[in-house]
Amino acid sequence: METSEAVPREEHEAVPQSGALGRWIDRAAIIPAMGLVIAMLILIQEVVLRYAFGRPTIWAHETTVFLCAISFVYGGLLCTARDRHIRVVLVYDVLPPAARRVADILISAICGVSAAAFAWAAWQMVKRAAWRPDGSFHLETSGSAWNPAYPGVLKILLMVALAIMALQFVILTINYARKGVR
């Protein structure tokens, strides 16, 4: 038995180069996934309440949109940890291993800088969505009849996810540079 071969990896798990952060992101993915299941159950309930009983809720739509948005935001983190982000595979797949290593390093570094810039831009949104002009804390609300603070919370979650994504890309850049050919 040869030990020099790479250990096969499932497509649905973090790449080794993503480190402990990537493994944590991969394991925590069950939480937003459960949010999608909860959103589906809420929508089923809403259909029954609306069409069977003529008693729709005022909270179902905004809650399902919020839960789905959380899942989409988390999806970016998960794609980063699993190295499933967008790349031009037509070019990437024909590169020799040494050139792929350089491409992985460059792609991860550029994506890290981009994610950090987007996190900073998200912070600009959070400042307006979480604080009043007088400096007191107040989350932005939806303005609907129910008026939850989902928009403010979602902007904070987006900023945190982008900051974590930037950190994940830094870890990937370092590990691709250190480990050599994958």
Structure description:
With 182 residues, the protein is mainly alpha-helical. The chain has one domain (16-83, 94-179). 68% of the residues lie in helices and 0% in strands. It is built from six helices and no strands. It has helices spanning 19-28, 30-52, 60-81, 89-92, 97-130, 150-179. The longest helix has 34 residues, at 97-130. It is globular, with a radius of gyration of 21 Å.
SSE order, one letter for each helix or strand = HHHHHH
Give the low-confidence spans: 1-5
Sheet of most strands: none
The percent range for helix content is: 55-70%
State the total count of DSSP E strands. Answer: 0
| Count of spatially separate domains | 1
- The overall pLDDT, averaged over residues, is 92
Helical stretch count?
6
Cα gyration radius (Å)? 21 Å
> How much of the sequence is in beta strands?
under 5%
Distance N to C terminus: 20 Å
Choose one word for the global shape. Answer: globular
The assembly state of the depicted protein chains is: single chain
Q: What structural class do the secondary elements suggest?
A: mainly alpha
Q: What are the defining features of this structure?
A:
mainly alpha; transmembrane; disordered N terminus; TRAP_DctQ; transport; transmembrane helix; DctQ; 0% strand; 182 residues; 6 helices
